[in-house]
Amino acid sequence: MTASLPLPHRQGPPLLSALGLTKTYGTTRALDGVDLSIMPGESVAIMGPSGSGKTTLMHCLSGILVPDDGSVQLAAPGTSPVEITVYGEEERARLRREKLGFVFQEGLLLPELTAQENVALPLMLSGVGRAEAQDRARQWLGALGLDGMHERRLGELSGGQAQRVAIARAQVAEPLVVFADEPTGALDSTTSEQVLTALLDSTTGRGRTLVMVTHDQATADRCSRLVRVQDGRIVADSACGSRRSDGYATAHPAGGAR
Amino acid sequence: MTSMTGTLPILTLFLGRLFQDRKVWLLPVTAYAVVGALALTVTAGARSFWGIEGDWGGFYTLLSIFALMLLSIPLMGLAGSAARLLARRRDERLSSLRLIGASSWTVRSLAVTEAAVLAAVGLVVGTVVYLALMPLVGLLQFAGRPIGVAGMWLGVPILLLVLGVLMLMAVGSSVMGLQRIEISPLGVRTRQAPARAHWVWALVAVGAVTAAQFLVRSTGAQDMAMVLVMMLIGFGLPMLALHFIGPWLIAVLTRRTLRRADTPERLVAARSVLESPQQAWRQIGGVAVTTYIGVVGGAGMALAGSASSTGMRAEDMLMTQDLRTGVLLTMLISFLLTACSVGITQAAQVLDRAELYRGLGQLGMTRTHLDGIRRRAVFGPLWIVLGFALTAAVVTTLPVLGLSLVLAPVSMLVVAATLIGGVLLVRGGVSASGPTLRGVLAEA
């Protein structure tokens, strides 16, 4: 049962704000005028039945999809907001590489690469040299409990380990927001718990922001805020009961928030 | 027996709907149409030499068999790519059928029958394309006259034999593909230890020798049989050696590339090649021998043509010229076959990895990145193979090559242009799978 707490008073400008998002597929309206603001450091769970529009909402917020109508603004702390819905395909791809991180249900790691190379890939795509990228990747793998596994391939990792590699990949470029789509959906309950802890520690535990689509109430309860979507609209938006308030640095290679 | 009776209605139901979804049939049918058209055209082209009369008639026959043997490698590579494409598993549907109670036999029969139907339709289209190409290819001149439409006609027995071999490859590859996976109601997974398929190559070799014997006997060239066997042995042993050396060379040199890879495209491409150097060799190894023979033979013929044209009989001069044309044509056709094989393999790989590519696109990897990876994964091994073939050509025939460059520079330019044209064909093969990638990424 979700604790239906009012949202706490939020100071400062939002990191991510969506206004009047509308998206239609054929005759189906996936999003119907959605407004949503996400503050820095929040962990937001988006829940809803299948076909409710939660994944479409996440895709619009992260610039994977362009809404038919409405806008999405991303504002890095200390900078003026940028309107990502007017960006072209290449610019949105660059934004996703450099400012955002992603964790998918199936991990989607390249099977021919080692764990270390998979994690280093976003950095290399952004022009960081291979040696430095792999060095940072190794640090992230170590921070997520995968010390000594950096040369392993996907086939040599368990489901939970592979998902932690995916989390390291999402974090390595120090993104402003990490988007996770059912990140524990393919895991057993124990592994799921461990992976979720790793994900939260490495994001909100370091003051970063997490937006997560999930079907699982227990997973949503670990977040600071729960947004419920139905028929393309937000029908509930509340704080969760078990918001983490412990310190940072449990899963960061440099040992602290940046 | 029970499973047999249960299988028929399922087969009827699914086969009736096989051609309703373009995504299911278009690529395999196109691939097999290309295989059919090229296999028939190449065989017919080689077969047309057997009717040439005169002093050099027997020599023309031998050369055509040699060219056919050279082209059989990339042709097998192409047919193998198309057959593997047919055997791609469609996990979701197969496991759904198991879930509702269909037996393993039913599911496997369905997969093999569908592959056979798609291959058969592709081969019918390919035969039509071969027939349509006959007037065009018939314009090629050998022994002082065009091959002509009649010369390009294979005859029904040989036509059916070629189609039969290709059909067997499709069904065989589908059966072997299914042996490597376990279909359960909960999904389809690959067995940990994939079934080895080495015996198939032995079978293919025996089949090729038998088919060649049949071709020779059916056209009344029995006296050639012994020469053919000698050629097969003389040519087969080095080819067998190359079959082992090629993948090893690709692996060694790609490992060096991997160590120095400083861009994501280079890194991923090198890793992809190292996943299976054998597969990379199967795809592009066919051009190794044809390039070697194209350069060495082209140089030799250029030299012969320029040095002794004054003292030659008209018939001899014609033969020299034909030999040069034949050598270059064989090289170009081997590149064309390789390009088609690359196009088919790449398209199949994009479909297999659709979800992964979509995910990488969401991470911010653009189509340019993915195209770069795919291009490098093909061209890395290709440059290695071409480098090997050209080095071998220079090392073994340095004086001839040097003299040809000095005495017949124009002829050598033609050889170089053919080689460049071949490389561009392979580039086209990679580009041909671009729309498949665009389609996959657009589904995000």
UniProtKB/TrEMBL annotation, chain A:
It comes from the Bacteria. Keywords: ATP-binding, Nucleotide-binding, Transport. SMART domains: AAA. One of its GO terms (molecular function) is ATP binding. It holds the Pfam family ABC_tran. PANTHER family: ABC TRANSPORTER RELATED, IMPORT ATP-BINDING PROTEIN. This is Putative ABC transport system ATP-binding protein. It comes from Micrococcus terreus.
From TrEMBL, chain B:
It holds the Pfam family FtsX. It comes from the Bacteria. Keywords: Cell membrane, Membrane, Transmembrane, Transmembrane helix. Coiled coil: none annotated. The chain crosses the membrane at residues 24-46, 58-86, 107-133, 153-178, 199-216, 228-250, 284-307, 327-348, 377-400, 406-426. GO terms for cellular component: plasma membrane. It is found in: Cell membrane. InterPro entries: ABC3_permease_C. It is a multi-pass membrane protein. The keyword Transmembrane helix applies. Residues 65-175 form the ABC3 transporter permease C-terminal domain. This is FtsX-like permease family protein.
